[in-house]
Amino acid sequence: MPGQKYLDFMWPLVCDGALGVIVLTNARDPQTLNATLALLREFTQIAPDASLAVGITMTDEVEDFLVPPFRDALVAERASRSCGWMRARPPRSPSW
Fold this sequence. Notes:
By secondary structure, this protein is of the alpha+beta class. The protein has a domain at 20-76. The protein is built from three helices and two strands. It has helices at residues 11-15, 32-46, 67-76; strands at 20-26, 51-57. Strands 1-2 form a two-stranded parallel sheet. The chain starts with 10 loop residues before the first helix and ends in a 20-residue tail after the last helix.
């Protein structure tokens, strides 16, 4: 799903019959939380029966980024029921 606002005319077409929507957001963007919440609100209106998932990228490149406040904001918006964590790429140096 293209998330850029200038492509929003495509969202209803792409969401038609969708089982879910995955929003990938970049932790390096200072507006990532607000942008993610805005997208989730839009997609909740466009595809009310679709499941929603959020993936946060580049968290390893932002030292002060914390998942719990992000998750709590999503839960406050009723956009999330659970939140897991995973590393999408290997650590930069061995951990042993």
